[in-house]
Amino acid sequence: MTDRTPRPVLGVFLFLSALWTGALLSFAGAAGIVLRASPTRSDGGLVNRALLDVLDVASLAAAGLLLVLFFAANRGRPWGRVARGAALRLLVIGAVAAFVSLYLVTPEMVSLRQKAGPAFETLASSDPLRKAWGRLHGLSSMTLVVRILCAVAAFVVGFSQVGRVASPAEASGPAGTDPAVTAPEESA
Q1: 136, 108 in Cβ contact below 8 A?
Q2: Which residues contact 104 (CB under 8 A, 6 or more apart)?
Q3: Torsion angle of alpha carbons 158, 163, 169, 175, nearest 10°?
Q4: How many structural domains comprise the chain?
Q5: Domain that holds residue 31
Q6: In a domain, 37, yes or no
Q7: What is the chain written as a DSSP string?
Q8: Grouped pLDDT means (10 residues each) for the chain, 188 residues
Q9: Among 84, 139, 148, 186, which residue is least crowded by beta carbons within 10 Å?
Q10: Is residue 106 part of a domain?
């Protein structure tokens, strides 16, 4: 039998994972626009850095809240074994990627930019500082892509649990009755 009872915790999980995905995709799409629309690339970089810092903190918060929601959803109705393992791994990987971006990659990028000073934009592409910054920018982009994939996959895994067939042990309520199927007794 399919359990079609409303599960608000799962709904909140899906909403938050979709919101997280949307925020990540919005930043990915807007970063280039910010750089092109800014008076200088340096100004655009400052705006993008501020946005990325907020996005990194929001990603850590989203992954943490999704983990809490995951555990809450599994108390009331356990997810399938594969979905449980996938969701846990995806949320931890997404949180680690946000942590790496916020506390390791971005501060190092800022440090390299400060070492170069105002002349950073004029450095040759063969300059060691420019090369190191480019590698870090690649890592930053990679952490963003990893988070996007984790957020999308977390949504898909959560959505896969919406119409999941409940096992008899999961579906039965007190005294072996299924509260979703059993109609309330009418008073005579």
Answers
A1: yes
A2: none
A3: 120
A4: 1
A5: 8-163
A6: yes
A7: -B-----HHHHHHHHHHHHHHHHHHHHHHHHHHHHHHSSSHHHHHHHHHHHHHHHHHHHHHHHHHHHHHHHHHHHHSPPPHHHHHHHHHHHHHHHHHHHHIIIIIHHHHHHHHHHHGGGGGGS-TTSHHHHHHHHHHHHHHHHHHHHHHHHHHHHHHHHTTTTPBPPHHHH--GGG--TTTSPPPPP-
A8: 62 97 97 94 92 97 97 86 96 98 96 87 89 95 98 97 65 47 48
A9: 186
A10: yes
Enter the tokens of residue 102. Answer: 């916020």
Amino acid 76: pLDDT: 75
DSSP-derived secondary structure for 31-82 = HHHHHHHSSSHHHHHHHHHHHHHHHHHHHHHHHHHHHHHHHHHHHHSPPPHH
Indicate whether 36 belongs to any domain: yes
Distances (CA, A) of 88 to 35, 68, 120: 35, 11, 41
114: tokens are 């400060």
Contacts (Cβ under 8 Å, ≥6 apart) of 179: 5, 173
As a whole number of angstroms, the distance between CA 126 and CA 88 comes to: 42
Say if 1 falls within a structural domain: no
Q: Which two tokens stand for residue 179?
A: 């509260």
